[in-house]
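Much of what follows relies on a compact textual record of a protein's fold. A record is reproduced here so that you can trace the correspondence yourselves:
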Amino acid sequence: MKMKHTLIAAAAVGLLSTGAQAVDWGGYVRVGPGQKQNSGDSKRCFSGGEAAGFGSQAPGRGGIGRLGNECETYGEFGLSQTMTAGGVNYKALLMTNFFKPGSDVAGTTTAVNQMYVEGKGYDIAPNQTFWIGRRFYHRADVHFDDSFYVNMSGTGAGVDGIDVGVGSLSLAVFRTSDAASTDNAGTRLNVDLEGINVNPGGKLRLTAAFTDFSGPGGENGAGLSLQHNQANLFGANNTLWLQWSKGSTWLDMGFAGATSGSDSKRWRIADSLAWLKGPLTAQTLVHYGQIEQPTLAGDYKAKTFSVAGRVAYALTNNFKLQGELGFASTKPDLAGVSGDKQNVTKFTIAPTLTVGPNYYDRPELRFYVSAFSMNDAYKNATGQSKKSKTAAGFQAEIWF
């Protein structure tokens, strides 16, 4: 048995040594003690949109910032293999992730969030990349808020990099679960045109989505996203989004609910500035949007507004002081009856150990203190007994 184990180990070492140059390993982790993602008075993370159907961690709706405001442990690790066969360059990627609400790493749930194969260099289309599988696809986010304004990730197939003169065109089709237990699988077509020169230093991106759920109660949908990237605006990179969707298409050009019909409509405007280099860095986000959807109690409408930003100053190459301030407001309306605005404000300060002064230098080891202040409407909607909360803890964040 000892000899068998020795032979297996030797074979593994030999395999790794011959393919080491072609294997890539990368990932992302955020972990640390201090916060609890619970309900009621034990709650220590807020987004401003919980009671409006936007979720507790502000998924793509604009929030009050993630610094000192992430109540889960999360990590993802990817292995990819590149190779050349028949004159075609291939890549296969597998990425697993783990997740658990709260600080304790034990008992995390695991999943596969990417597994795909892509190839480029086929003689019939040498400049295009073809891919099939499950993947993160053409995402666009505001990092400090963890809001993904474009997120077409899923299981599908596509082709990227079609030169159409004015820009680069990508086409992809996605499917929801095809399991036998799923009676209402959906199909989505995404059209993404990037790199359109519209002004000095400015590029436009046009993304469209069309969805269809053909099973019982299934609905179709459509969406359009306009994204403008401007370099060197007040010394920063600026991104502006104008987005609209209806039915079973969400604002990020992904899927919404299978039974969301044409009466479900959404739109939003968002703008983000990012100063990324030097000892003084920052990122901001201003968001305004609205959703409309029918419910059993009548037509529901919510208008959302948020403004937030993070600023960091590197006192030395390895130590910076970070601060984050955010305000979010939700105005609900049910069956024509307007509710009170639900307002929440967050302020966080975080002394940080880092590896460099720039905005995206990682890893970072942080100690943070967050203070939350809310009005009566927000307090009642989220089950709080007090209008203020304070949370303190530690967090490590790394990507590689």
Remarks:
- Residues 1-20, 53-60 have pLDDT under 50 and may be disordered.
- The helical segments are 2-19, 376-381.
